[in-house]
Amino acid sequence: MHLWHTLLRMTQELSMDTVIRQRIKGLRLAKGWSLDALAARCFLSPSTLSRIETGHRRIALDQLVPIAKALGTTLDQLVEPTGDEDVVIRPEPEHQAGLSIWLLSREHTANGTTVAKMRITPERSKGKAELAVHPGREWFTVLSGTVSLVLGERTILIEEGNAAEFSTMVPHHIGAHQGPVEILTIFDHGGERAHMHEHKHD
Prior knowledge:
The protein is an alpha+beta fold. The chain has helices at 2-30, 35-42, 46-54, 61-70, 75-79, 189-201, and strands spanning 94-96, 99-103, 113-120, 137-144, 146-151, 154-159, 163-167, 172-176, 181-188.
């Protein structure tokens, strides 16, 4: 049993080792850099880097730190695990009057944005709609129904299959026109705070 656990641990370490090598090579190629170009930026020899990428040299922690920095990533991102639990997201909806939100991305995404699905009913726009303002931009596509987007003095109808992108510094409100709508939206941290703040105070 002890031998089996040892072999399992060695296999996991080897597979993680392979993933790290693939990440280093993939990030280097994505930047269009040769081995020489990356080597110059992380103060390692091209032959050492080549042996690291091909698996002919064991990766040392003190080498990973400058490599990660040169590639514009972090040590944590370079060595993060690759299990299925990091892939599947099972969102729980958050509800308020006329609005349900499913967060479809994890917190702290690399580019600082959040992906969410929203279901909006005409109940959200009853009375005078509160116009939101916050730094950043927001993008959404309409999955079903017709969205009534208020932007400053304008009201724009956006039908199923169409998309919208706008500066969230313009006073805005996303509502439903003549029936429920579902949208897929991407917003930055300012937008996430605005949407979640609205949820928590209703």
